[in-house]
Design goal:
The protein is an alpha/beta fold and 303 residues long. It has 12 helices and 8 strands. Bound molecules: zinc ion (ZN).
Length: 303
């Protein structure tokens, strides 16, 4: 594949700046937010117990693995990713479900918040394996994403582009959103209890390992926080996710912990990341409904 095809949707100016910019940045951390689309929590836990998700396990060992829940919107792709990428529910985003939605209002995504605050000192990337569902909610944010590749594609096609994107980012501070559609497709086709569904999740783990290996090779793993989550769960034993609010978060962020009260919610992901990136949460408009999960006292040590 040629690079020209890859950046078909990219904001070209941002992409063209890569490489020539100094590594000076106000961002202390790089952040990669990874979505394993439709990976059911119970199924994931089963696979973890069987020891077939070694790369996810390594993240959890360095940081945390916690159960999460979805509240207040459909358990589907658009509503889940809207909350995962903006921190707001449908009252603010207008995204209730795959069918009842609009684009996330301008300025509310992590991409836009980073660019508004850090400008060209930060790079933003979105590589996703579903086209319409993701593009339709990110339409207003695309101008603030330096490299966007949003297309219907499996991990085998998008994974290598993710690694290439990381190599091009080497000396830049960045926020990247990497989305894998494989578990959702396998669940819809073969069912939640199928071997194919398990294999799709282990494939995501394989690519997580390649992402980590690339970061290590580039010498930036120790300043990159990785948060792996899902947009929604899956109905037990079925080919649907009509009522699947049980999700999860696994991260190498040593400061993340389950909240002292109640279960963590999908809306807690964005406040956690924004606080990590130096935002004062109380100053954000409109105010974020979620809470930061940065609880543990962590010194200067890095994962
Ligand atoms: Zn689905």
């Amino acid at each position: 594949m040629k690079l020209r095809q890859i950046i078909s949707i990219a904001a070209l100016t941002g992409a063209l700046l890569w490489g020539g910019v100094s590594s000076q940045s106000l961002l202390e951390w790089n952040v990669i937010l990874i979505s394993w689309d439709g990976a059911q929590r119970a199924h994931l836990e089963e696979l973890r117990e069987h020891g077939v998700l070694p790369n996810l396990e390594a993240l959890a060992a360095a940081g945390a693995a916690l159960p999460m829940e979805i509240r207040g919107h459909a358990t589907d792709t658009k509503a889940g990713h809207a909350e995962m990428l903006s921190g707001y529910g449908p009252q603010v985003t207008g995204i209730f479900s795959n069918r009842y939605y609009q684009a996330i209002p301008e300025g509310l995504t992590i991409f836009e918040r980073l660019k508004a605050r850090f400008g060209q000192q930060s790079s933003t990337v979105a590589i996703a394996g579903k086209r319409s569902n993701i593009i339709e909610i990110l339409e207003n944010a695309l101008a603030e994403i330096d490299l966007a590749l949003i297309r219907s594609a499996h991990a085998a096609l998008n994974g290598p582009v993710m690694l290439r994107a990381l190599r091009s980012l080497k000396d830049r501070a960045f926020f990247a959103f990497f989305h894998f559609s494989d578990p959702d497709h396998a669940g819809h086709t073969y069912g939640e209890n199928s071997q194919e569904y398990s294999e799709a999740i282990t494939l995501c783990d394989l690519w997580l390992g390649r992402i980590v290996a690339t970061l290590q090779e580039l010498g930036i793993f120790d300043k990159t926080l990785i948060y792996v989550t899902t947009d929604h769960g899956f109905d037990e034993g079925r080919k649907t996710h009509s009522n699947a609010p049980e999700i999860w978060l696994v991260t190498n962020d040593p400061a993340v912990a389950s909240p002292e009260e109640g279960i963590a919610l999908q809306g807690d992901i964005v406040p956690t990341i924004l606080e990590r990136l130096g935002f004062e949460l109380g100053a954000l408009e409109p105010s974020l409904p979620g809470r930061s999960l940065l609880k543990k006292a962590v010194g200067a040590s890095r994962p």
